[in-house]
Specification:
mainly alpha, 4 helices, about 90 residues, single chain
């Protein structure tokens, strides 16, 4: 059984700090600062999310607009998780 880790902005920041996504992500980046995640970065981010936190999300174009900040990504992932817990 997998323990569910809360998805926080710190978790998102850690995942985005991967050299394949944002190799120079500032540690003090504001949660609402604008991010520009490209499609390859998105795919790698979602892969890492599934591998590390057992949260599987298929990449879609809407993610590129939803994933515009640390807070935006975190809010989206928590909405997805809330939907998962209600469904199963």
């Amino acid at each position: 059984m997998t323990t569910r880790v809360e998805i926080t902005t710190a978790v998102v920041r850690e995942l985005l700090s991967d050299p394949k996504i944002f190799p120079e992500l500032p540690a003090d980046l504001d949660e609402d600062a604008e991010l520009a995640l490209d499609s390859l970065g998105l795919v790698w981010f979602l892969h890492q999310l599934g591998t590390r936190y057992d949260l599987v999300i298929e990449p879609e174009d809407e993610h590129l607009t939803e994933f515009g900040s640390l807070r935006g990504i975190t809010d989206y992932l928590n909405r997805v998780r809330a939907g998962e817990s209600r469904d199963g």
